[in-house]
Amino acid sequence: xxxxxxxxxxxxxxxxxLPDTSLAKDAxxxxxxxxxxxxxxxxxxxxxxxxGRRVVVTSGPTHEPIDPxxxxxxxxxxxxxxxxxxxxxxxGAEVVLVSGPVALPDPRGxxxxxxxxxxxxxxxxxxxxxxxxFVAAAxxxxxxxxxxxxxxxxxxxxxxxxxxxxxRNPDILAAVAGRREGRPRLVVGFAAETDALLDxxxxxxxxxxxxxxxxxxxxxxxxxxxxxxxxxxxxxxxxGAPRVEAWxxxxxxxxxxxxxxxxxxxxxxxxx
Amino acid sequence: xxxxxxxxxxxxxxxxxLPDTSLAKDAxxxxxxxxxxxxxxxxxxxxxxxxGRRVVVTSGPTHEPIDPxxxxxxxxxxxxxxxxxxxxxxxGAEVVLVSGPVALPDPRGxxxxxxxxxxxxxxxxxxxxxxxxFVAAAxxxxxxxxxxxxxxxxxxxxxxxxxxxxxRNPDILAAVAGRREGRPRLVVGFAAETDALLDxxxxxxxxxxxxxxxxxxxxxxxxxxxxxxxxxxxxxxxxGAPRVEAWxxxxxxxxxxxxxxxxxxxxxxxxx
Lengths: 272, 272
Prior knowledge:
Two copies of one chain form a homodimer.
Chain A: H1 2-12, H2 21-24, H3 30-33, E1 54-59, E2 63-67, E3 70-74, H4 79-90, E4 94-99, E5 111-114, H5 118-128, E6 133-136, E7 143-145, E8 163-168, H6 172-177, E9 186-193, H7 197-208, E10 212-217, E11 229-230, E12 232-238, E13 241-246, E14 250-251, H8 252-269
Parallel strand pairs in A: 1-4, 1-6, 4-5, 6-9, 9-10
Antiparallel strand pairs in A: 2-3, 7-8, 10-12, 11-14, 12-13
């Protein structure tokens, strides 16, 4: 029933009814400052087409080399990002998927650019612009080892254990959302958090200047990372205040289809 | 022709002829001290059965958590280790495969224990012993972050970038090969090196007290990591001196079948 209700709500362009318990469990101050609310029904609601739109999606983790055989990574199967690329292509968009290392097949009808590091991913995204829609679903590593060794680092008895000095990686979402020229009309970020989900997500929405943020709780027991399902919150801003919409737990492909319908409505709604 | 010759050589229990160039390119001093030579033809040559044998194989990487969403890993698809487990099962052995995170299906007829960290892998291996044969094909992370954070580490502007102090992980191969009681009769290690392959492999064979070492060059351009093929060197010791045998580049499943034939011959040859 929840799924059917959510589908009807989406088709109507209204908010999905929130289960009573969904925010009651959350001790976040956002509960008071940003009540869960409907996003404004887009004028083009019901039309889920992205025909004629150019879409760039990032997906998967990045791998940041320590040496030729070792790396730092974020946990990410790429399932949600790949599903969004596939759903956007199915909705008629021309899609470029910039993917870190994943064990997934390339989605149908999508141009896939495979990258390894955050810096490679940023370069590939910039090469794929301009676009109407940018969806930053990849779990980009925030840091990389300052200097990757050319040869495998060997263990040496008696030697002190190594210390990895980390450097900040480029922020791909902020870089695209902050472009003065060639900013995609709709920039969508993802936030995977283990704690204070809505606070962290609301802060990210504002800090990164994106239009829509998809937040998911990847804390212990959520089974989201690598799993087939996802339970997301959508965050948007209306007159500067964050608005939150809770979606039920759904298959990642279904989350993707609903997100794409939302993106299409937002792009259509913003048309003159 | 090389493959056919190699197959004949294996069946005969003699060494595979080395291409003239295979060591000429290697500036290692091992070239002089350890000429490539045949291993002694095992008495049970030709019989590739592991019926009645208990085999423990490790495969894949380990993931060492930095926080709930980030980790350090070694590059490893698990293809070679999984293929060895499958080949051992096909040869009649009772096989336990202790696997780090991989994107591979469980091999048929094999009991699979999934683990994440090196410490988990060691515990699972020790729980799976005793065994006649232990094959350490996993790419175990040598180090782990000293303290994994319970919550996702947040970027903070103005704060210094984080430093990861690493701790040494347990050495699973050395722990099993060095057991005073319950040491498997045949302990096989793997060495993936980017430079000085044979020197590093010979040192590892001696240091870890294993009976056979499978060395592969994972340097730039080798395409071994994650690929379908592998070109290995087998190192054994005879009277304390390392002996090296070069195998041609083969599909990883074929490498696995030939290794299992060798293991069976060595176990049979060592019988009273």
